[in-house]
Amino acid sequence: MQGVGFRYSTFQVALELGVTGTVENNIDGSVSIEAEADEKTLYIFLNRVKSSPSPFGKVTKLDYTFSDDLQDYRKFTVIG
């Protein structure tokens, strides 16, 4: 999902919810997100991302996994 403002819209949702991590475009046109927050906040974040925070984008597939391997991000960053 490139050229529709998805990363920056995701960034705004992360800031609003206090989520830390990263969002970046992949070569195949997909987007990768690493996010850290408490479980409840992460589920809210996922639901907001699923409904596409960008008015010009549409999420057709969402794969996610939870991990205890935290990166201790201090903020949410758009990469690229």
Automatic annotation (TrEMBL):
Keyword annotations from UniProtKB, A to Z: Hydrolase
Documented EC number(s): 3.6.1.7
InterPro entries in the cross-refs: Acylphosphatase, Acylphosphatase-like_dom, Acylphosphatase-like_dom_sf
PROSITE patterns given in the database record: ACYLPHOSPHATASE_3
Active site: R7, N25
Gene Ontology terms for molecular function: acylphosphatase activity
Keyword DNA-binding: no
Domain Acylphosphatase-like stretches: 1-80
Catalytic activity entry: an acyl phosphate + H2O = a carboxylate + phosphate + H(+)
Family the entry assigns: Belongs to the acylphosphatase family.
Protein name as annotated: acylphosphatase
